[in-house]
Amino acid sequence: MDSQGRSDAPRPRRYGSSEDGRREGRRGYGPPAARRKCAFCANKALELDYKKVDMLHNYTTERGKIGTRRHSGLCARHQRDVALAIKRARHLALLPYTAEHVRKG
Ligand SMILES: [Zn+2]
């Protein structure tokens, strides 16, 4: 005589209203990322130089653009220095302005 059939079944949770679904103020999954220090601030011995192409290459994107601070994890001061060094290296043709596959089209 139970018209509902499953009256004792738990009600489905409404999306976005659960008690344990609070946002912790961070994006994505996993443990909260530790505040990573800028590589140049952390390591004083690390010197920035426009001739160090291999190092500067790590701060460019796949297309040859200068990476963002979010990408590099550098502080504002060192990101500026890196950007300047990349521009110098580009001027001397040590680094490309664009990726080869972009230029060819
Ligand atoms: Zn720094």
Brief overview, please?
This protein is an all-alpha fold and about 100 residues long.
Question: Would you write up a description of this structure?
Answer:
This protein has helices spanning 39-42, 53-57, 69-72, 76-91, 100-104. The protein is elongated. The chain has a domain at 39-104: Irregular (30s Ribosomal Protein S18). The longest helix has 16 residues, at 76-91. The chain is an all-alpha fold. The site of zinc ion (ZN) has 7 residues, from helix 1 and helix 4.
What is the terminal separation in angstroms? Answer: 72 Å
Counting H and I runs of at least 4 residues, what is the number of helices? 5
Described by strand count, sense and barrel closure, the largest sheet is:
none
Judged by helices, strands and strand pairing, the structural class is: mainly alpha
> Which ions and ligands are bound to the chains?
zinc ion
CATH class of the domain at 39-104: Few Secondary Structures
**Uncertain residue segments:** none
Please identify which CATH superfamily of the domain at 39-104 we are dealing with: Ribosomal protein S18
Mean pLDDT: 80
What string, H for helix and E for strand, traces the elements in order? HHHHH
CATH topology of the domain at 39-104: 30s Ribosomal Protein S18
Number of strands: 0
Molecular shape: elongated
Radius of gyration: 25 Å
CATH architecture level-2 label of the domain at 39-104:
Irregular
- The proportion of strand residues reads under 5%
